[in-house]
Amino acid sequence: MAPAKLLVDIHTHVYLPRYANMLRARSSVPKIMTTLIDGKEQDRLLILDHEPSGGRPVGPQYWDRDQKLAFMDRHGIDVSVVSTANPWLDFLPASQAHELALELNADLEQYCSTGPDMTDSSVKRLYGFGLLPLVPEITTTSLLEAVKQISEAPHLKGLIMGTRGVGKGLDDEALDPVWAAIEAAGLVVFLHPHYGVDGKAWGDRDNGHVLPLALGFPFETTTAATRLILSGVFDRFPNLRLLLAHSGGALPQLSSRLASCIDHDPVVASRLKHDARYYLGKLYLDAVAYGPEELGFVSEVLSRANRYEAGSTLNEPADRKVGSKKVLFGTDHPFFPPLQSIEKWKSVVENLEAISSVQGWTEDEKDGVRGGNALSLFNIS
Ligand code: URA
Ligand code: ZN
C-alpha cells in the first residue's frame, strides 16, 4: 500500500547514460559538447534549432540516478515518474530509433526497478515513461513492439512523446493503430514539446532561452493537442489518457474560442461528436505553471467538461472536484536549476507554493495534486 500523502513528481527528466553518450558522440545538434568558458572546461547541451546562448550547462544531474534521488530528498519528493528529456529519438534514422527505443526502455525499467523502495511500503521511489521510435519511415510493427515492451515493463507507467509523430504530427491517421494499442494497454501518454514555434517571432535581441521556453514550448503543446482534438482521436479512442506538459500551454485559455471557431467552420462543424470543451475533460495537466491563479483556472476549465457532453446544457453544474483531480505536481528537473547555489530550487518551491495557495481547492484536493492524483492515474500502490 502507498502511504497517504506522498509528494509525486510526474514531470522530471533524465538523459539515460546510453542516450547521453550518444549525444556526446555527435557533431551536430542535438549534442553534448565540451567548451572552454572563462578558462574552464564545461559540458554544454545543445538541443534546440538555433540554440540560444551557446546551449545550457549539462552535467551528471541529467544522467546520474543518485543525483535524481538526492534532488528528490532535498525537496521532499517521495516518488518520481521519470521521462527521457527532449528531443528523444526524433533526429535518428528509423532503424537506429527502433533499436535505441527498445534499449532505452529496458534501461529505464532497470533504472526504476533497481532503485530504492519507499520505507515500509511496496511502492518504489522511481517509475518511468518509456519511448516510442516516432520517426519518419518507421513501421507500425516497430511502434507496436515498443508499446508492448512498455506495457509489459512493471515500472513503466506510460510513454513520453513529442509533437511530430512519424513526421506529419499527431493527427496523422497512420498513428491510429498506435493510439489503439496505447489505449488498450492503459498507458498514459505524456505529451511534451521540443520545437517551439517559428523562431522568427522572437526577433533579434538576445533573450537567452526565455522566449522559446516560456512561450514556444507551451504554444507547441497547444497546437499539437488542438490538432489531436480536431482529428477526432478522442471520439475514436475515448479511453486514451493524455497528460499535457506545462499545464496544457494556452489550450485551457483558448478552449471556448476553439469551440466557437469549430462551430463556425463549414469544414469542421459536423466532424466531432462533442463540443471542443468536452475533450478538455479527457486531459490531465501537470502543475508546472508556477502560479496559483493559473492552477485554479486550468482546473476549473477541466471541471466544466461535463457541461459539454452531447445533450447537456450550459446550466449543467460544473463538477468542481473533477478538475483538480486531473492536475499533477511536477518539477521539470533537471531543467531550470537555480542561477545561484541555494538549498531548494525556486522552480520546485514555486510550484509547491502555487498548489498550496490555490483559492477554492480544499486540503484534500491539494494533497491530490501533490501526489494522490498521480498514484491513481498511474495505478501505483
Ligand atoms: N528545457 C528543455 O529543453 N526541456 C524541458 O523539458 C524543459 C526545459
Ligand atoms: Zn519537461
Structure description:
It is built from 13 helices and eleven strands. The chain is globular. The strands form two sheets. Strands 1-5-6-7-8-9-10-11 form an eight-stranded parallel sheet. A three-stranded antiparallel sheet has the order 2-3-4. It has helices at 17-24, 65-74, 94-113, 140-152, 176-185, 210-230, 233-236, 251-263, 276-280, 292-303, 320-324, 346-356, 363-377; strands at 8-14, 31-37, 40-46, 56-57, 79-84, 126-130, 156-161, 188-191, 241-244, 283-286, 327-328. β7, α5 and β8 (188-191) form a beta-alpha-beta unit. The protein has one domain: Alpha-Beta Barrel (TIM Barrel). The termini are close together. The protein is α/β, with parallel strands linked by helices and 381 residues long.
Give the tags.
binds uracil; binds zinc ion; 8-stranded parallel beta sheet; 381 residues; 13 helices; 3-stranded antiparallel beta sheet
Give the helix/strand layout.
Elements: E1 8-14, H1 17-24, E2 31-37, E3 40-46, E4 56-57, H2 65-74, E5 79-84, H3 94-113, E6 126-130, H4 140-152, E7 156-161, H5 176-185, E8 188-191, H6 210-230, H7 233-236, E9 241-244, H8 251-263, H9 276-280, E10 283-286, H10 292-303, H11 320-324, E11 327-328, H12 346-356, H13 363-377
Parallel strand pairs: 1-5, 5-6, 6-7, 7-8, 8-9, 9-10, 10-11
Antiparallel strand pairs: 2-3, 3-4
Bound molecules: uracil and zinc ion.
Zinc ion binds at residues 11, 13, 192, 245, 332.
